[in-house]
Structure formats: structure tokens, C-alpha cells
Design a protein that fits this description.
This protein is an alpha/beta fold. The protein contains ten helices and 16 strands. The protein is globular, with a radius of gyration of 23 Å.
Amino acid sequence: MKKHSNRLCGVVAAALLAIPAAVVAADEAKGPEPFVPSGSNAFMYPGEPVAEDEMRVTIFGSGYGYVRTDQADQSIFVELGNGDAFVFDLGEGSEANYMEMQVPYSRMTNLFITHLHTDHYGSLPHMYTFGPSADRWTPLNIYGPSGPTPELGTKYMVEGLKQFTNWHVVSFNGIAVPESDGYDINVVEFDYTLNPGIAYEKDGVVIKHFPVAHSIDGGIAYRLDWNDLCVVIAADTRPTRFYYENSQDCDIVMHEVGPAPSVFAETMGVTEERANSMIASSHTLPVAVGKLFELTKPRLAVATHILANANTVLPTVDGIRTYYDGPLAIARDFMVFNVTKDNITQRIGVGSGSPWVHTEAHRDGEPKYRDDQLTSDFILDSVIPPCKEAKDDKCY
């Protein structure tokens, strides 16, 4: 195990968050100010830089399947002190949370998908098609697993994405917005059976992938290592030794957790038999999650992919605590973890509530538009021209 501090300090935003968590302040000169419960350090605001020696992990989607106003489907954003940024999953609703914290599309270029259930990439069509209208003018890089057959892999999904969004792309690129490479997609599909395999290795960043047991073959989880810091990104899975083996000696270990079938059945209004089937085929019960955390002993354990309600959170915590008594956080949208070799600081991101899209990248040269006209004459003939007699020349 890394010999790192495990001092605790929590952001108690609600009873849900009143769970011991590895939360302490970073160096004053390089990160957040020392933690004061009533002070601004409890929150992260848009635009806060990442310190050179720091990894920042933000949860922009903590739920699953059923999108709610307070919980988007899964998405984890990892930013590094070297300037790199990585999006892990982009579930439905999560893109709005990135916008809330003013993350520009140019910072969302590298997307790593754990598996092809749409609660893990449902926001991709919108992010792909509208990114180039903001400031993502470079190709989108999509990393993801193969499947047991080609039709069940990431490449096949991306080909479908291109067909699904074709009208949008044709009508935007070079017509509604300046022409760019933003609508190109680089797909990196890797063998889901490797344990582990290398998904990405560049500038000191190593992202490994390893198999999980979820529904059918083709699911994976990720582990990111950089600057002697590490995070394991949650994936939907039953308990496996692969997850245990790849979660050793890591600062933050995330793991999905499913509610007890009786709670699931009561909350969803389904039979307990159906609830048992859904959990048994795809997810991990709290007691088993706690056992994995106890065996891996991370500096901070994070249970996620849970519909967080009063009747689900407390039984989940009780189950995890059967075996594990270390630092624990139950994930919620906008949770932020600032990680250094000495400390982990847990906070909550706070945005404006009604943000405009934020841009950072700058284009070289003049914007270029295509000359070809894709609108029929009979449509053009129906267009009402501006009122030339208007003083402001803006009436129609």
C-alpha cells in the first residue's frame, strides 16, 4: 500500500454525505485553502485550475438507467496537473452537468466507455454533434471494448452513431458552423478479454482496462495511473477477482453497488424475483462491495451507480460497513475529489444554474464555410427577406 495520509474531513451537504470520507486540504500554495466547514473550500466553482501535482476527479453522473434531475447516468471526469482530461462514460443527462461546471467541449475530446448500455453513453450523440459548434474542432477520440462479435463492439456502435447523426453533421459542418475536423471520430477498440490491457499510454498517463461480469461479454472497467496517483473507474459488474486484482495499491477505488433486491422491488414496484434476476446478472450487493474495499484498502472508497434515496443509501452503507470501516463516499452528482500524494479533498461543485456554453480553444486562421448550397430553390423562394425599411434593419 502507498504510505499516504488518511486524515478525514467531509463536506456534509445532506444526510447522504454524512459518511466518513478521506477529505483533507491540499497544499495552500498549490490547491484549495485549508478546509473550513463553513468556508468556500467546501465548494468548487467553475474555472478552478488543477495544481501541477494533482489529480481531480469529478462525478458528473452517479445514477443509472433512470435519469433524474439530481442524478444523471454515469460519467466520471478526470483532470490531471499536466493539462490532460479524460471522460469516462457519458450517460444520459451528464452532459448538462459538464455544462453547469463550464467544462468546454474542447476538454471532452477523450471519451472512454465501459460498456454499451446507453446509460453509459446516452449523451454521446449530443456531445458529438454540438461540440464543433462550440470549441471542439479536433476529432473526437472514443475508446471502448470489443464485443463477443463485431456487432457488439464499440466500432459498430460508432458507425451507427454516424448514421444516426448524419443529417445534423451535414447541415452543420461548414454551413451552420465553420468547417472543422470536429466531426471526425477516431475509434480505439480493444480486446475486452485482456486482464489488463493498455487502453492509453502517453505523457506519463497509463489507462488500463480489465474485464467485468455484467449481463453479457464486452464490459470493462478502467484504472488510470499518473504521477504516482491512481483511480479505478467504476463499471457495472458482479464481484470478480479481476476487479480485486486491478484495484490494488490505488488512491481512489470506485465500485458500483446495487440495492438489496427487497429494496429494489419495493422502490421499483416489481416482483422480488425480477429484482433478484437484475441484481444477480449484472450488479454487486453492498456486502460484497464492502468486502472488496476491505481487501483493496484504498485511500478513499467510492460507491456509485446507485439511485440514492433514503431507503437505498442507509441499507447500502450498512451493507458495506459489514466488512469495510475505512474512508467511504456514496457518490452524488458534482462530487469532487482533489487528489495529491499527501491528501484527498472532497468537495461539491457549484455552478450558476443557467450556464451558457463555455469555450476555451481558439481557432487558427479565418473560419471556412462550404460554397455548396443544400437548400432547394422552392424553400429559398419561401424565405421572407429582412424589412429593408426598418431603421435597425432587423425586422422580418
